[in-house]
Amino acid sequence: MALPAERMTDQDAPRLDVGAVLDAHDRRSFMRFLTCGSVDDGKSTLIGRLLYDTKLIFEDQLAALERDSKKHGTNGEEIDFALLVDGLEAEREQGITIDVAYRFFSTPKRKFIVADTPGHEQYTRNMATGASTADLAIVLVDARHGIMRQTRRHAFIASLLGIRHLVLAVNKIDLVGWSQQRFRQIEEEFRAIAAGLGFRSYMAIPLSARFGDNVTTRSANMGWYNGPTLLAHLETVEVGNEALDLPFRFPVQYVNRPNLDFRGFAGTIASGRVAVGDPLVVAKSGQPAAVARIIGPDGERRAAREGEAVTIVLDREVELARGNMLAAPTARPKVADRLSARLVWFDDQPMSVGRAYVLRTETDQCGATVTALHHRVDVNDYSEQPAERLAMNEIGLAELSTQFPVAFDAFADNRATGTFILIDRLTNRTVAAGMLVDAARGADNIHWQALEVDKAARAELKGQRPAVYWFTGLSGSGKSTIANLLEKRLHAAGRHTYLLDGDNVRHGLNRDLGFSETDRAENIRRVGEVSKLMADAGLIVLVSFISPYRAERDAVRASLAEGEFVEVFVDTPVEECARRDPKGLYAKVRAGELKDFTGIDAPYEAPLKPDIHLRTVGRTPEEIVEALMERIAGSPVADSFGDGGGI
To answer: Sorting pLDDT into bands at 50, 70 and 90, what band is 638?
Structure first.
């Protein structure tokens, strides 16, 4: 017989099975989604309302929200739910979202991580960040304004970044009198936009994030709408775990070698499954091996799956380091140094063909040059337009050449191993997000041919160590004169040399190039490749080029072996160069006959830490070369030239 409530004790009360509750919580499915769209469409308010209606705001948070609403809110005395996720002071002062805000919440049916992304065009990079890991996108539209340019851009980026489930949330429907006609008009226009973007599921929902209509509960103000609420749709839409069914990919993040008896490869499984005994291959070399052990956070285990961080021990020694990956032998990733990729350009400095950047994947990094831009996408109609560069927030299909081969999958096949970012070498800013399409045309048919005679053998025959002395400085600084005199001295000393001079190269190898920014970058890239080949032949190469950009000089340095590149800064003030004016170029600049002249109306980025710093004022070229020869001391190698010492 049940006891009266007032007589029940703690012992009589039903016991809560904490373990069962936690187990049920763990079994719930998980989904990541983001909110995006144009500015002021109500993205932050919608997330705040979701958190409030699902009872995930603590009393102290609610009290703080009420206080902040009076100070920063836009709803008078009412709670401004946007302030729950607009945490930056600048966001609250301006009433906009700047950064990506992530929030976790759960319901009895599913667990969620939601990314609130900015609507302003200059923060498109942040929206792309939020979209990169999302399963579903909620594109908000203000019912008063309808489809905006940024709405189209965000829908396209969501599709580009592999999101296959879309919700159109027509917000602020209360401000148009709960109009069914207005909702249908916007829904039909957006359906036409989304039709060609490859989404697998699409749902349009009219709602008012401010008042909660159709967010978690059905609205009494829209009897004409018979679809699900937003939360009901989020709880039931099937997103699946596609990465689990993909071929095995394990990017190596760290080689764990605590002692001579253990060598394990640590990382997070990007896709697929693996078990002890499974055959694998090293992606870049094709070396075969089998899984001997799998070690997780809790110790040894028999198998592991996508998303788990483990250490894999192989049954044999293979050459494998960070930046490479282990893969299924029957479904190997692509390996290429010429890549075709879609780029979302973030930087305020436009992307131009020929510029060098740093390409960074999940675990790999190398120098990369944009070698071609095939087209730019017009976000108004998604048409492909010819273009020579990408401005900030523009999207295009480009071709890149990397410093060494990269292991990857096409983004359409595997989101985890098909993405990268481009980084500016000088500023370290992330300038673009990239989605790999394929190896560039013909790259699959081109492989390195192993040669029996290598650089060391060629250099030994010549009795010298190869090096590239890169003379950089303004026009008229004395680069060519000094390099020419130095080659004469080295030749007299029995050294095997070659001098590449800027003007001479433009008569032959680079005769097809002009003086645009793109052509100048290609000029340096070609000379860098030639100097690398000459160093491989065992020569001492003297290169005399203005080469005004640090990033381009750094790209040449990165392409050579450690210590082979010696940057020689011929430091002559522009006033002295103009006084000398050996080619009459400064006179043409003064007369207005020559534009974009380096050091005058085009930039010159002086080396920050040159290997050799030559100050020329008050000294003859012969004196400078004599000092150079003493420094080289008959053994022209770069090993001792890391101090930027002046001569």
So the answer is: very low
Q: Give the span between the Cα atoms of 489 and 481, in whole angstroms.
A: 13
Residues 474 and 586 occupy one common structural domain: yes
Strands (E), 458-595: 467-472, 497-501, 540-544, 565-571
**Pick from 543, 591, 551, 583: which is nearest to 567 by CA?**
543
| Residue type, position 13, single letter | A
Say which CATH number the domain at 296 has. 2.40.30.10
- Kindly report the number of other CB atoms within 10 A of residue 411's CB atom: 22
Which of 300, 327, 354 is the C-terminal boundary of a domain?
A: 327
Is 387 among the domain residues?
yes
Which of 38, 69, 544, 547 is catalytic? The answer is 547
pTM above 0.70, yes or no: no
| Residue 380 burial (10 A CB sphere; 0-12, 13-18, 19+) | exposed
Whether residues 185 and 315 fall in one domain: no
Residue 5 within any structural domain of the chain: no
- Classify residue 619 as exposed, middle or buried by CB count within 10 Å of its CB (0-12, 13-18, 19+): middle
433 shares its domain with 504: no
Query: 400 and 428, same structural domain?
Result: yes
Q: Output the CA torsion sign for 551, 555, 556, 560.
A: positive
User: Which residues, 6+ apart, have CB-to-CB distance to 428 below 8 Å?
Assistant: none
**Residue 65 reports pLDDT greater than 60:** no
Based on the structure, what is the number of domains in the chain? 4
pLDDT band at 91 (very low <50, low <70, confident <90, very high): very low
The question of whether 544 is a catalytic residue gets the answer: no
**Does residue 359 sit in helix, strand or coil?**
strand
For residue range 341-361, list pLDDT tens digits in order: 999 998 888 988 888 888 998
For the stretch 440-458, pLDDT in tens is 765 555 555 667 788 889 9
Q: What angle do CA 508, 514, 518 make, to 5 degrees?
A: 115
Domain end call among 445, 475, 508: 445
Higher pLDDT, 121 or 511: 511
- The CATH code of the domain that includes 93 is 3.40.50.300
- Does residue 306 share a domain with residue 225? no
Whole domain around residue 370: which residue ranges?
Answer: 334-445
Task: Tell me the pLDDT tens digit for each residue of 184-212.
Answer: 999 999 999 888 888 889 999 999 988 89
